[in-house]
Amino acid sequence: MEAQAGFVQMYKPGQKAYNEANIIHKAVQTNERGIKNCQSCGMPIAKGDKNGTEANGTKSMKYCIHCYADGKFTLPDITAEGMKERVREKLVSMGFPRFMTGLFTRGIHKLERWKS
Predict the structure, then answer these.
(1) What's the CA gap between 15 and 33, in Å, rounded?
(2) CA–CA dist 106, 54 (Å, integer)
(3) Distances (CA, A) of 23 to 37, 99, 101
(4) Which member of 29, 41, 48, 107 has the greatest number of CB atoms within 10 A?
(5) Could you tell me the CA-to-CA distances from 115 to 40, 82, 91, 107 in Å, in that order?
(6) What is the pTM of this model?
């Protein structure tokens, strides 16, 4: 990450190259700090207000408040396919067209929770 910081410092603020380097630097920082999406349902958690909790009360860096609480999955017996359907239904209830829900859920089975 220090190399990225040095790269940003090579340019002056306002230059196009400076702005591009700064964007790259911020992306690297975000990836090093934590995962951007819940590794169970795929919901964005990058802002920090949607993180689940570990058994000791700290925020989970992998799972959202809907999937993980007190160090345990809220739905321990759900399958990846069951999670896809659950997320699809939630998106529909939020007003998303049903045909678009497949785009948002197609990668759920690849998330960390479902890899084993």
Answers:
(1) 27
(2) 27
(3) 19, 33, 30
(4) 41
(5) 10, 15, 24, 12
(6) 0.68
Tokens of 102: 């497949």
Which of 23, 28, 40, 24 has its CA nearest to residue 75? 40
> Is the Cβ–Cβ distance between 84 and 91 less than 8 Å?
no
Q: Please give the backbone phi and psi of residue 78, each rounded to the nearest 5 degrees, phi first.
A: -70, 145
Q: What are phi and psi of 30, to 5 degrees?
A: -60, -45
The answer to whether residues 38 and 67 touch, using CB atoms and an 8 Å cutoff, is: yes
Span 25-69, pLDDT tens digits: 444 334 344 568 999 999 998 777 899 999 999 999 999 999 999
Closest CA to 37 of 67, 65, 62, 60: 62
Distance of CA 86 to the CA centre of its chain: 17
